[in-house]
Design brief:
58% of the residues lie in helices and 0% in strands. By secondary structure, the protein is mostly helical.
């Protein structure tokens, strides 16, 4: 079950909203930076590289991010976040983000693993799908839940980073949105009118 249906994701992307009014400064700062970086995502050779390795995340953190993003935008009749390599986008954003924002995100990632371990006896990536969904559903409830604010803030941040990352990939643009290429540009060549050339 998708925790964040694609229609809602598109509304969020179109509105440019960061989320709840209660967003902390680090969430607003990091998701705003991710939105700026999303425009470069589709053309990023580093993200698409076959020999890609995370720069900000450890291997286990990267695996947790893969699982989280796929739960947010799962594979349906079109590919999900895993196939779109949204984890690579998130790692790229974190590598370039303000250190305080990156540290807050990584604290949240550690929190979700610790909470999963405490509840289910396994880290988040290894927990049963129903347990993963139950934990994220509680976080999605935000202020109405009894969850730790660190987890709520983290889930808000990764949710919006996943949406921005997914819908600026070729998969998100062409296969999910049905764009013929007008919105997705691997490279922007600029204006080719002679009168506008320097």
């Amino acid at each position: 079950m998708a925790l964040y249906n694609r229609r809602a994701a598109l509304r969020t992307l179109a509105s440019g909203a960061v989320g709840a009014v209660t967003s902390t400064l680090w969430v607003e700062s990091l998701t705003g930076f991710a939105r700026q970086q999303a425009h470069d995502h589709a053309a990023s050779a580093a993200i698409a590289a076959q020999n890609w390795a995370p720069r900000a995340l450890s291997a286990s953190q990267n695996e947790t991010v893969i699982v989280l993003t796929e739960l947010i935008i799962p594979e349906t009749d079109t590919p999900g976040a895993r196939t779109a390599r949204v984890n690579r986008f998130i790692d790229s954003v974190l590598a370039e983000a303000k250190p305080a924002d990156r540290d807050a995100f990584l604290r949240g990632l550690a929190w979700i693993d610790a909470r999963s371990q405490a509840r289910f006896g396994k880290g988040f990536a290894d927990a049963a799908p129903d347990d993963q969904t139950a934990l994220l559903t509680a976080l999605a409830a935000g202020a109405r839940s009894a969850e730790d604010p660190i987890g709520v803030e983290f889930f808000e941040a990764i949710k919006f980073m996943t949406i921005d990352g997914y819908y600026t990939t070729e998969i998100g643009m062409r296969q999910e949105l049905g764009d013929s290429g007008a919105m997705f540009l691997a490279q922007f060549a600029g204006c080719d009118h002679p009168e506008h050339q320097a």
